[in-house]
TrEMBL record:
Domain of life of the native organism: Eukaryota
E.C. code: 3.2.2.-, 4.2.99.18
Catalytically driven reaction(s): 2'-deoxyribonucleotide-(2'-deoxyribose 5'-phosphate)-2'-deoxyribonucleotide-DNA = a 3'-end 2'-deoxyribonucleotide-(2,3-dehydro-2,3-deoxyribose 5'-phosphate)-DNA + a 5'-end 5'-phospho-2'-deoxyribonucleoside-DNA + H(+)
Composition skew (Polar residues), residue ranges: 33-42
Name the UniProt record assigns to this protein: Endonuclease III homolog
Taxonomic classification: Eukaryota, Viridiplantae, Streptophyta, Embryophyta, Tracheophyta
Keywords, ordered alphabetically: 4Fe-4S, DNA damage, DNA repair, Glycosidase, Hydrolase, Iron, Iron-sulfur, Lyase, Metal-binding, Transit peptide
Gene3D superfamilies in the record: Helix-hairpin-Helix base-excision DNA repair enzymes (C-terminal), Hypothetical protein, domain 2
Bias (Basic residues) ranges: 337-347
Organism encoding this protein: Stylosanthes scabra
PANTHER family: ENDONUCLEASE III-LIKE PROTEIN 1 (PTHR43286:SF1)
Record region (Disordered): 1-20, 27-54, 326-347
Homology family: Belongs to the Nth/MutY family.
Amino acid sequence: MTQTTPSLPSNSNASSLSKVRVFVRRRSKRPKTTSLALQQHDLQPPTRDDHYKRSSFPEIEDFAYSGANAITQSSKSEMGLDVTLVESEAASTRPTGELPAHWERVLEGIRRMRCSAEAPVDTMGCEKAGDTLPPKERRFAVLVSSLLSSQTKDHVTHGAIQRLLENGLLTPDAINNADEETIKKMLYPVGFYTRKATNLKKIANICLTKYDGDIPSTIEQLLLLPGIGPKMAHLVMNVGWNNVQGICVDTHVHRICNRLGWVSRPGTKQKTRTPEETREALQRWLPKEEWVPINPLLVGFGQTICTPLRPRCGECGISDLCPSAFKEASNSSPSSKPKKSGPNKKR
């Protein structure tokens, strides 16, 4: 029997559930529908064999924006996907923290801005790695791309993945057998390419000896891999295994959420200090259906408008709702710095 999960009012604080659940996308032949209601089924969590049978994976951007609205049912139907809830030991599907003021208006405004301009993440993000490969190979490609993406721009990571692919070095077996110097040449100029080449060799060996050439299928196992942090692990789970257990928070998401006043350290109004603190704070209140699209949405926003230095607040459509608007832009502007008079300068 199928039951429809009632939607929550945006201004309500729901208590945490006794059972915790996560979203897992499952293929369905149901006709298109415009309803955003989630279906709850009496199903067991998918096994690794179930994932092997999948012929393709959803792109994160497919859940980010396909017009003025965020997650449209039509985009999910076109991919033959249905969103269901499955038992897990992950965070609750219902928000339990205090909702920031006007967060829905802010999110909608960012979506509109993202629809008007393409960002590097839209075509060269980690989730694009190996998108033409079979499922098992693609999972490894996404894992490798995530490893390389740390402190590296998207186009540089994308270039390294393409070189590995063109040289037949984007499988655990090929990397395990390749000379480390060869791997380094393929990765350059990725940030910290020497260390990442070493970690990549170790990861390939672990995948071969422990996972039969596949990648780990849990957050805990992924975090045991050298060089893999929480943001990477959640992205790999989302894209590679269609299993949403947390939000992918990188420096863009971390910066923008703090600028918007969406997150703070527990019990204080101070900004979060790390992406992991931001992830935990954001998951306390952000509705679960936004956990996947929030990453590419804010990453692209951070690459184009809400940039690390001199954010373009004058071009931003939500500056009237942002508590940080024009502050960092003016502070980082060269004209705002006081001019120093030299000792021999005429007055």
